[in-house]
Amino acid sequence: VQLAESGGGVVQPGGSLRLSCAASGSGLIYWTIGWFRQAPGKEREGLACISSSDSSTYYTDSVKGRFTLSRDNAKNTAYLQITGLTPEDTAVYYCAAESSILCSPVGYALARRYDYWGQGTQVTVSD
């Protein structure tokens, strides 16, 4: 599967964005999708996961309440809706795919669980 993120940009604090993760080469329906971000000078951070089988979701405490995952298998696209953006959300955002039918409750935020990655989309939160 190939993944391509889009939807990033420059947003003012308090704003919202919806990031997309388009799958090709293999239907999104077969893949559990994780979202990560990497800010300058920092390690890649796991954020959330949406399962392939039942669209169940997991969120890290740092984003719970502001980040919402969804998926449209007919469009082969997964989405990450972000609200209440702050400068601390500035980062490159990545989606990643793994073949398990459910997100791992313990490991969903670990990069090593995922086999395929997109190229990332830049989100900058600034006045």
DSSP E strands, number = 11
Q: What is the CA-based Rg, rounded?
A: 13 Å
Shape: globular
What class do helices, strands and sheet pairing give?
mainly beta
Tally of alpha and pi helices: 0
Report on the structure:
This protein is mostly beta strands. The protein contains no helices and 11 strands. The protein has strands at residues 2-6, 9-11, 17-24, 32-38, 45-50, 57-59, 67-72, 77-82, 91-98, 116-117, 121-125. Strands 2, 4, 5, 6, 9, 10 and 11 form a 7-stranded mixed sheet that branches. A 4-stranded antiparallel sheet has the order 1-3-8-7, with no helix packed on it. A hairpin with a 6-residue loop joins strand 5 and strand 6 (57-59). It is globular.
Which features characterize this protein?
7-stranded mixed β-sheet, 4-stranded antiparallel β-sheet, about 130 residues, mainly beta, single chain
Compact overview of the structure:
With 127 residues, the chain is mostly beta strands. The protein has strands spanning 2-6, 9-11, 17-24, 32-38, 45-50, 57-59, 67-72, 77-82, 91-98, 116-117, 121-125. It is 0% helix and 46% strand.
